[in-house]
Amino acid sequence: MVRHRKVGHVQLKHGNNNETSSSSNNSESSFASRTFKVLSIWKTLVGFVCFLIAVYVGTLGYLETRVNTPFDNEKVVQETGLDVPQRYWGSYRPGVYFGMKSREPKSPVFGLMWYDLAAVSHKGIRHWCDQNDNLPSYGWLRHDGISFGEQSISDPPHTIVTSFVKTTGGAHGGHWTARINITAQNNANSHFMLIWYGALDESLGPESSRLWVEGGALMGHTPQLDHFRVTLVPQKGKIIHSAYSEAHAPGLHVLKEKFYSLLKVQKHPGFGRVAVVGPDEELDGKDKEVNFVPIQLLVETPFVLDVVYTTEDLPTPPLQGHDYQKALDEKKKMFDDKFENTFKLLEKGYPEEDVSIAKAAFSNMLGGVGYFYGAGRVQSQYTREPVPYWRAPLYTAVPSRSFFPRGFLWDEGFHGLLIGRWSVDIQMDIIAHWLDLINVEGWIPREQILGTEALARVPKEFVVQSNSAANPPMLLIQLAGMIRRNPELFAPDTTHRRTLERMYNRLKAWYNWFQTTQKGEEPTSYRWRGRDDDELQLNPKTLTSGLDDYPRASHPSDIERHVDLRCWMYAAADSLSLIATTIGKDPDKFDAVRAELSDEDLLNELHWSPHTRTYADYGLHTDGARLVKVNPKHPNESPKMVRVVTSPPQPRLVTSAFGYVSLFPMLLKVLKPKSENLGKILEDLDKPGLLWSPYGLRSLSKSSPLYMKRNTEHDPPYWRGQVWANVNYLALSALKHYASSLGPHSARAAELHSRLRANFVRNILSEYKRTGYLWEQYSGEDGKGSGCRPFTGWTGLVTLIMAEDY
Ligand SMILES: *[C@@H]1O[C@H](CO)[C@@H](O)[C@H](O)[C@H]1NC(C)=O
Q1: Rounded distance, CA 244 to CA 100, Å?
Q2: Which pLDDT does position 24 carry in this prediction?
Q3: Which of 308, 411, 681, 772 is most buried (most C-beta within 10 Å)?
Q4: What segment(s) does the record annotate as region Disordered (predicted)?
Q5: Cβ of 304 less than 6 Å from ligand 1
C-alpha cells in the first residue's frame, strides 16, 4: 500500500540542497570538457545519475518534512494568554470532574478529587470523568464560557455542587473563587474525603515555576501569574482532619496514582484509623522539584468549601462567603436571561424542567471547552515513522468529557453551531485555533491529542494521524453560517473582519487540499481516502467520513465515489464564496465549483440509481459479504472471523446501503426546491420500516443488509441504524429550508419537519430524565441512549432544535 511505503535515506532534509547543486556543478563541468572519450561519457552519465539520485533524495527529504511544516502565513490567533483577560482562567480541563487552568501553555492546573471513606475500596478515588465510575449524572447546569459556571455531580449518597466565579483585573489574570458544596442524602452527617490540588505541567520542560505551602495556603509563582495564593476557606461543616503534601509527580497524567502513593494509615484521636497524605519520599535527597501539592480534608457533611485563588497585583478583594453567593446568584440570573433571549424556549412554551435540560445540554458543551497544548503525532507516505506535529495550543469544545475529552475536527463544526449562537467571540477564537493547526499542504489533523493528560486516554492505534485522511469541512460551513447570520460583526474595520481576513488563505488551502487529495476518477466525483481493507471487516470502515462503519462499497478501490463527500464539497464551495465576498475577494472560482456540483444532471449521472430511485455511492460492491468463523492453522490459536463473499464484487451503485449517505443531496441543500428527486427523498423519509423512527431518523434503513450488523467480531454496529443528533440536525435544517422555499415539496417538508423535530426532542428529553445524561446516539428501536455518556458534543444541538433555530 502506498500509505505504508518505506523509503530509504529520507533522513536528509533541506540541508541536502547543497549536495544537489554541487552534483549539478559536477555534471555541468563534465559536459563542459567536450571530450568524446567513452570514459568521459561514462563519467558524465555517472554524474548525471548521481545528480538524479541527489534530486530524488532531496525531494524525498523535502516531502518528508511537509507533513509537519506549518502553513506559511501569519497566525490567525494573535492575542492569547494574558492578552485576553476575560477568557484567561476557566474550567479548561474537560476531562476531570472539576478543574481550573489558564489559557497558557504552561499553566498550573488545579482540581478536585474525592472519595467516600465507606466505599473507597470498591469505588476508588474520583478524579477524571470516567464512565466506569457509574455516576448517576454530572455536568454543568449553567456555564457562560467566560465568567462562571455551576455543576452538579451525583455520587450517591453524596451530591457535590461545584461552581466558580472569576474576578478579572490586574495584569496577571485576576482572581477566581471555586465553591465545593457536599451534601449527603437526607442532609445526613456523613464522612467524606476531599482533595484539592495544584500541579505544574513539566512535560513542557523546566521553567521558573514553583508551588509550595505556607501558613496553610497553597502558594505559587509562575512568570505569567507572578505570585499567587490559594486559600481554602470552609463555609459550613466540620473538618475532622487535614493534611497536605509537597510532592513530585512524574506527569499530569498520574496525579491520582501519585496521590494514592502518598497515603499512609494513621491513628486519629476520636476517629480511628485513616489514610492521610504524608511526605513524598521520592523527593528526599533527589534533585526533584515540588510540582504537585494535594491538600486533603476529611470532612463531615453537609460541608461547603470556598477555594480562593488570589493574584498579588489585584487589590480588589476576592469573592468568598456571602459575597460569593451573591455574585453567583447574579451570574445565574444573567445567564438565565441571556439563555431565554437567545433561544426563547420559555416563550415557545417549554416547561421549566425541559428548559433546564436544554440549559444543561448547552452548558456542558460550553463548560466542556478546554485548552490543550502539545504536539500530536502524524504520518505521511514519505515518513518512515510517525513524526511529531509542531507544538501548538488548541482552544476547543470536546464531544464527551468522559470518553472523548479532546478536539475532533468535524465535531467542532457542529459544536460551533451552538456556541456561535451564544458568543461569536468564543467561536471565532475556537476556529482561529483550529486553523492555526493547518499544515503547509492544507491539511488539518482530524483528532487532536495534545498534552500528556489527553494522550493518556487514547488507545495507541488512534494516536497517529495520517495526512491523507480528511474529515468533513463542517467548521468552514459553520463559519459561513455565522457570518450570514451576523453580517454586522464582519463589517470592515471590525475585529472579527480582521480575523476572518487572516483565516482566508488557510480556509482556501484547506479547501484546495480537499480538491486535490480527495478527488475521484470521474470528473466532479470525490472519494474519501483511508479505507483499509484487512479482509476481516464486513465492510471496511471509512473513518474519515465521520460516519465510521456506515456501509460503503464492499471492496475499496480507486473507482469509488462518495456522494456525501461530493455534497460536502458543494457546501464548502458555497461557504468560501460567501466568505470571499464578505472580505472583498473574488468568489468566481468557488461559484463555478458550486454551480457544477449543484448541477443535478451531473449529480444524477454519478450517484442516482434509476432502479431504486435513490442516491448512492459507487464502487466495487457485492451484497454477498458475510463474516464466517475459520478454524486456525495451529491448534493453540483461537478461531477467528473473516469476511467471505458469495458473489464477486462488481462496479455498481451501492443502493442497498440506504441511509444517511443517501440523504446528503437534501441534507446539505444541494437539490433545488423543485427537484423531483427531492420529492422522492421526502417520500422515502416518511416510509415506515426504513429510516423513520419515533426517536428520530435512523442512520441506516431497517431494510439494509447491514442494518445493526457487527463489522468484526469485536466491533459492534455504530452508524448502522442508531439515531445520531448531528445528522438529524442537518435533516431538520434542510427540511425547514425546503419548507420555506416555494416549490412542490414545501408543504411535505414542513410537515416532516414538525414531526421529526417533535420525535427527536421528546426522546432526548425523556432519556435525559430517565438516565441523567445526553448520549452519543440513540437506538432506532426503543430510543434508548447508547454509546458513551455524557455526550454533550453535538447531541447538545437539541437546544437549537428546541429553539427551531438552524
Ligand atoms: C449546598 O447545596 C445544598 C444542596 O444542593 C443547598 O441546599 C445549599 O444551599 C448549598 N449551600 C451553599 C452555601 O451553596
Answers
A1: 19
A2: 40
A3: 411
A4: 1-29
A5: yes
* Three cell numbers written together for 670: 444541494
Give the residue from 482, 550, 472 showing the smallest Cα distance to 511.
472
The CATH class of 86-341 is mainly beta
Left (φ > 0), alpha (ψ -120 to 50) or beta: where does 40 sit? Answer: alpha
Q: How many residues does the chain have?
A: 806
Burial class (CB in 10 A: 0-12, 13-18, 19+), 507: buried
Residue-level pLDDT at 36: 54
Q: Which of 548, 596, 751, 805 is catalytic?
A: 548
Residue 588 annotated to the active site: no
Q: Which stretches in the chain have pLDDT values below 50?
A: 1-32
* 573-624: pLDDT as tens digits: 999 999 999 999 999 999 999 999 999 999 999 999 999 999 999 999 999 9
- With cell 504552561, the residue in question is 106
3-state secondary structure of 289: coil
Rounded to the nearest 5 percent, the helix, strand and coil shares of the chain are 35, 25, 40
Q: What is the pLDDT of residue 17?
A: 36
DSSP string, 526-557: B--------S-SSS---GGGS-TT----SB--
- Torsion of the alpha carbons at 367, 368, 369 and 372, rounded to the nearest 10: 140
CB 668 within 8 A of CB 570: yes
Q: What is the amino acid identity at position 714?
A: H
CB 305 near ligand 1, within 6 Å:
no
Residue type, 644: V
Any catalytic annotation for residue 776? yes
